[in-house]
Amino acid sequence: MPAFPLPAGETDHSHPGIRNDGADALAFRVRESDGVPVKRTSHIAAAVVLGAVLVGGTAACSSGDSARPDGVGVMEKLPKDTDAARSKKTAGEFRNWVREHGTAQQKAAAPLVRRILGEWNERKGDAYISTEIGGGTSSTPDPRAAAAAIVKAFAGWRHSGQGHASVYDVYGNAVITDYRF
């Protein structure tokens, strides 16, 4: 194919079958001898199609407020608390257990726990631990270390072998996810 458009009506003699049909400067007929007209797509049309695909793709993404697990079951956002009284009571029981049985790091981190959501038993379950990490009345110097101490204390408090605990900051964002207890 020639590197530049041919003037209307002219044929590129070095490439038989390629000639400008005169309709516009960028439309070429290729293999006219086969009777199959093939036209070049303009760059503008390609850009319009690409733009439409990108806009359609981002419109399909939602910024909904409902928490859903990702492909491996990890909740990146704290799920909705359907029983606030129960989750606060569970958090209080957890803090009391840590005061009696926890390590120094666990005792320092336990007061950050505000609510514990989820269902678990002696065999399996999922716990979602809401904390004041990243906000609240006091700052947390090392949020990841505090979250790690909380999930380890939770694992000591409720061992199931098949359960998973996740810790969330004050904004509901995951700090540690899917810690086995």
Please give a structural write-up.
This protein has helices at 43-60, 84-101, 104-109, 143-157, and strands at 19-20, 28-29, 113-120, 124-131, 162-168, 174-180. It has 181 residues and is of the alpha+beta class. The longest helix has 18 residues, at 43-60. The chain is globular and about 75 Å long. The model is unreliable at 24-32 and 58-72 (pLDDT under 50).
Strand-helix topology:
Elements: E1 19-20, E2 28-29, H1 43-60, H2 84-101, H3 104-109, E3 113-120, E4 124-131, H4 143-157, E5 162-168, E6 174-180
Parallel strand pairs: 4-5
Antiparallel strand pairs: 1-2, 3-4, 5-6
Key features of this structure:
181 residues; alpha+beta; 4-stranded mixed beta sheet; two-stranded antiparallel sheet; 4 helices; 6 strands
